[in-house]
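Continuing the batch. This is chain 6 of the set; chains 1 through 5 are on the previous pages. Same settings as before, nothing changed between runs. Recording input and output for traceability.
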Amino acid sequence: NFVIQAKADCYFTNGTEKVHFLVRFIFNLEEYLHFDSDLGMFVALTELGEPDADQWNKRLDLLEMSRAAVNMVCRQKYKLGAPFIVERNVPPEVTVYPERTPLLQQHNLLLCSVTGFYPRDISVKWFRNGQEERSGVMSTGLVRNGDWTFQTTVMLEMIPELGDIYSCLVEHPGLLRPVSVAW
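Output for chain 6:
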């Protein structure tokens, strides 16, 4: 028993300004050959791939078709997908709450829950009385929701004092302006 796979990838820089098309050929989980659009030819990666690379690089029709895939496949798919992926902006929902019922002079954790946003680029900062708090800040990191959106929770260790105002500031491409939620 054996498994042969072919995997095609398009890599984009600056939209479609620079496109790199790569087709990988894999035998039993080992890549043995690939077509690289930057080189315009097939490249053997193992001894197994040498006969195919030699033979396929002599076929001008196959080389021309593979080179044309940058425009016919990659740039075309980019145009179709861009409105749904590249240009998609879903603003986050922001909620601030304490881990436990807050008591003055008692250690607690404030959580800033930021959910349902796309793309993944996001900035979440904590402020106390208008000054950014950098120490005692922890994050869950980005979590994929499985529906093309993300979530994260950024926590702040704090000891509340009378008159303190804590706020979570969120910046994201889906927001017209940063959102600040006070606690």
